[in-house]
Amino acid sequence: xxxxxxxxxxxxxxxxxxxxxxxxxxxxxxxxxxxxxxxxxxxxxxxxxxxxxxxxxxxxxxxxxxxxxxxxxxxxxxxxxxxxxxxxxxxxxxxxxxxxxxxxxxxxxxxxxxxxxxxxxxxxxxxxxxxxxxxxxxxxxxxxxxxxxxxxxxxxxxxxxxxxxxxxxxxxxxxxxxxxxxxxxxxxxxxxxxxxxxxxxxxxxxxxxxxxxxxxxxxxxxxxxxxxxxxxxxxxxxxxxxxxxxxxxxxxxxxxxxxxxxxxxxxxxxxxxxxxxxxxxxxxxxxxxxxxxxxxxxxxxxxxxxxxxxxxxxxxxxxxxxxxxxxxxxxxxxxxxxxxxxxxxxxxxxxxxxxxxxxxxxxxxxxxxxxxxxxxxxxxxxxxxx
Length: 386
Fold this sequence. Notes:
Distance between the termini: 21 Å
Shape: globular
Low-confidence stretches: 1-29, 360-386
Helix content: under 10%
Largest sheet: 4 strands, antiparallel
Mean pLDDT: 83
Number of strands: 31
Number of helices: 1
Structural class: mainly beta
């Protein structure tokens, strides 16, 4: 059997952890979504396809992430519902979870993953009830209480992501919380801790994403805030510092963002869905205050989530967008400005609340692939073409 490298593309920007594994090829599901009361999977790449798999009916989740939570060599997916976090590892219809958290109360907003305590097991970090809370499904029994939690902030909690922002070799969680970007280091910090780092006040906030946007080797944060996207570099900026770059004005609150080298020039870019279009920015080559360098066709509403993968296996990253009742794929590196999506799922009357790529398998001899801070999708694409 061929060896493969299995990669969770949800966490490519800024991570180099146990989400990258060597093993036998994993079958089937390409994209999963929290959608209309179930987790649903899509894999054929035929436009207008219906789901090839669906989990048991449960409260529609606020977020979905992928990782090998039980260390069996295959990717699992975790859904953040309004009542619990649930982890699934199979592809059978009406599948039940292999693990679930305690009952949750309060608002469940977003979720990310990483090996925050360095023990070789992947943890889930959820932005839930005004705090970051972590669980480790491989070492905790179902119905478990969180293993760590941050301080509480009641001024609004939005997106989150993971990365080694201060360059110390230990992962942090970054959140857009109470009008500022903030980073925390679970387990290094005690329970109820204040952030390691926080930005200047950015006002009304939305999603955030991470990448090395200025090409200096340090991981940056792109934060949706007060009608602009603002960039911060927690590893080199002091607490309370203002942004070092910002986009043009007028995009409103952004609920969906992702990062990658979409045009193949070796620079990280970020993508936002704002004012009814998918829009791309490249801060390393665009001046402060710039508008997007690429945008999609217009939609009647804004997207609820985005993710990045090489969906068609052509070596060029695609952006998956949950918008207007479908999951839709764009490939900015090969599509012109104003492009229509090249792939879409069957329509449902509601939007997916969240989407994720379960696995990307690359048949080749066993290889150790290192993604360093800010390496993003460009490194993956180059490795595939070697």
